Amino acid sequence: MAIADDPIADGAPAQRLTRAQRREHFLDVAAALVAEGGFEAVTMESVAARAGVSKGLGYAYFDNRGELLAALFERETGQLDRPATRAADAQETFEGKVRATVGVVFDTVAAKGPLIARLLRAEAEGPINERRTKRQRVIERRWAQLIADEYGVSEPTARASAAIMLASIPRVIELWASGKGSREELTETYTRMCTAAARDLGSAI
Amino acid sequence: MAIADDPIADGAPAQRLTRAQRREHFLDVAAALVAEGGFEAVTMESVAARAGVSKGLGYAYFDNRGELLAALFERETGQLDRPATRAADAQETFEGKVRATVGVVFDTVAAKGPLIARLLRAEAEGPINERRTKRQRVIERRWAQLIADEYGVSEPTARASAAIMLASIPRVIELWASGKGSREELTETYTRMCTAAARDLGSAI
Amino acid sequence: MAIADDPIADGAPAQRLTRAQRREHFLDVAAALVAEGGFEAVTMESVAARAGVSKGLGYAYFDNRGELLAALFERETGQLDRPATRAADAQETFEGKVRATVGVVFDTVAAKGPLIARLLRAEAEGPINERRTKRQRVIERRWAQLIADEYGVSEPTARASAAIMLASIPRVIELWASGKGSREELTETYTRMCTAAARDLGSAI
Amino acid sequence: MAIADDPIADGAPAQRLTRAQRREHFLDVAAALVAEGGFEAVTMESVAARAGVSKGLGYAYFDNRGELLAALFERETGQLDRPATRAADAQETFEGKVRATVGVVFDTVAAKGPLIARLLRAEAEGPINERRTKRQRVIERRWAQLIADEYGVSEPTARASAAIMLASIPRVIELWASGKGSREELTETYTRMCTAAARDLGSAI
DNA sequence: AATGAATGAGGGTTCATTCAT
DNA sequence: CATGAATGAACCCTCATTCAT
Q1: b vs e for B117-156, b when ≥16 Cβ sit within 10 Å of the residue's Cβ?
Q2: Which 8-state DSSP code applies to residue B13?
């Protein structure tokens, strides 16, 4: 409805963005929508509307809805995983790495809300599921390596235990979100559980 | 479209079943569809088509799609939880109970496929989420009690640790389903992880 | 669900009725449903359910939904029109007849609720519309005759004026139902309007 | 299915109209359908089919079926009421105003068919009923004021009589449409009935 | 690049009606 | 006479996607 030269109309930056900026903006909007209403809330139309652009424009940046969601997944997990890896790398022990990783997860959730939990947990449309599986494999392998190295756990058992530990991280976030424990308590509990389990698995037959 | 070897020819009126039989049949079909394609694959239409009946018939048995899904959830979790509780009750120790529970889970998956893992894990439509949350609360409380009693873990920590342990059961099933370990190995690993964690949490401050 | 020898189960007379009784019962139920929720509320299923019989039974008494509604219309308008005619016949003047007729209408509405208003007014499914038109023609002709005879109004004008007068009777009922006047006031107003109009139309060119 | 002389071929994409044009087109189609078959004949699907567009397009213009019907009601009654008010305002007396109003009604029906009668009369779905009730209240109040002022009729009686008079206008249209009188005769008859009634109600106790 | 009209398929739901038992 | 399982058509509504402008 506005006709001219508002640099940014209506709260929605509807103008003169570079291709990359506009793409990011789409992802920001999609992130907000997932956080508010889950994946179903992300429709090409809702994203366009919230972004203040026309219905068809999304397709100039993403092949289809699946790709938009996949791009969102990549961006958000990247923003979680890079700091997490960095924080873990700064630690010597498995225990330190676990604690550091959980810390970054909490930080991220604090900063961006339930988005990341949803991304990691939900049964979602195809393109996301594939990527999630791939990401999981990578992270599980890393943790398994640490467990095997530090506690002398056999390869396959280390793999399984890493998978089991990682699977409950979203629940830890949920517990926090629903007030079932403080950040510190939950970090402590989770870290102790992981290390105790790893130690035990490495200890005997 | 199929021409041969359908038990029921394509335009012919379906078998006339009793109310209870038809209801079970619908749930069987829904179960198969969830196993294959997740919740989204369950539409009143897809169920009817697969069941070989007309589109509207489902509504004579379930008020709406949500109720169908809810009924499926109730049936399947009931078939898991009743034997699991029975098996756990027959054991004295937390360790025994965990092992027995996992055993029943494996039995169930062996008999009915990975459906149950999906039911327990996925972020799903409203009616299922509510029921899952409720069920979780009940089971978590039970495990928490055991952990607190047997290992002297404080109430809140026991609650959190139970939640964390239970959250990874679907992943255990997945590991098995994808060949990442035998039933015995996975049972052993998971059980040791749980008991080691509980013991550790109870050991000191 | 009950298996034997309740003479009347569940508030619903579900048993041992003669054909005619059962037919009447269906109409009673349909009447109640129209009064509560309009024509749309009358489905073959809702009628059967309320009557405490099985879904298909209605078709043993009425060819189809339209016929059920039509039979209801006939019965109810008959129960209005016969007393109305009798009451009108007992009066000498047009004014008396109008007053008597309106009195019977009020009595009927008082006894049977908004059913009759709905039957007379609503744009309804085909079979009812036809009958209503026919009924209207009959009554309009009668009133027109009276107007012509008593006030010397020409045939066509008498016909038109009768139609115009009769068309507002449902509104009179509505006014009463919504508390916009007492029975007596509304009867008086309506009667005076009709007689004044008739007198005027007969008076000159 | 039609093969010839459709302006638009059967599977071809429809004319691309502006938003306003398409909206009007939808309303035109809906109007035609109401005129032919009443409200029930207006479904989002029937409108789309008649308009030669795809099933879902209507929802880009109206939130749902109710809104479409409501918009139709607003448009049509607006096109009747604005000229009617103007014509009535140009007259000094109640008689003149009644005659002028009826004249505009006839003009409108002549131009657009009996649609308006249906809109004003029928018991319809919620959104229309509300609006009709509101409109009626406004017009009844206006007429009541005139009757009270010019003939000295008491407030409540004036209200009731106005309601009664207005309720028969659709019937006047029907009489005309079914050839039961000329425009002039019906206008004259209706106007005399109204004025005679008002005069009488004002004359005594 | 961007708009926004339009498509078309998919899925939810309701009911009149039929018919095997 | 009665039951109640089943059909099938008609609607409602939403969205991913295309494409003329």
Answers
A1: bbbbbbbbbebbeebbeebbeebbeebbebbbebbebeeb
A2: P
What gap in Å lies between CA B190 and CA C105, rounded to an integer?
Answer: 80
Tell me, in Å, how far CA of D40 is from C1' of F8? 20
| D105 pLDDT more than 70 | yes
Query: 3-class SS at D83?
Result: helix
Residues B105, B115 contacting (CB under 8 angstroms): no
User: Which of D34, D133, D193 best probes binding to C when mutated, by most C CB atoms within 10 angstroms?
Assistant: D193
Q: From CA B10, how far away is CA B196, in angstroms rounded?
A: 58
Strand F neighbours among B 34-93, CB < 7 A: 52-57, 60
| CB-based contact A181:B160 (threshold 8 Å) | yes
CATH code for residues B70-203: 1.10.357
pLDDT tens digit sequence for A124-170: 777 888 899 999 999 999 999 999 999 999 999 999 999 999 999 99
Q: Are the C-beta atoms of residues D6 and D49 closer than 8 Å to each other?
A: no
CATH topology of domain C19-62: Arc Repressor Mutant, subunit A (1.10.10)
Q: What 8-state DSSP symbol labels residue A41?
A: G
pLDDT at C112: 86
Residues C155, C161, C166, C167: is their CA dihedral positive or negative?
A: positive
Regions of chain C with pLDDT less than 50: 1-14
Tell whether C199 is within 8 A of chain D (Cβ): yes
Percentage of residues of chain A with pLDDT beyond 90? 77
**Cβ-Cβ contacts under 8 Å for C63 (sequence gap 6 or more):** none
Express each pLDDT in A84-100 by its tens digit. 999 999 999 999 999 99
Q: Where are the domains of chain C?
A: 19-62, 72-203
**d(Cα A13, Cα D48) in Å, to the nearest integer?**
36
- Tell me the pLDDT tens digit for each residue of A4-46: 433 333 444 445 678 999 999 999 999 999 999 889 999 999 9
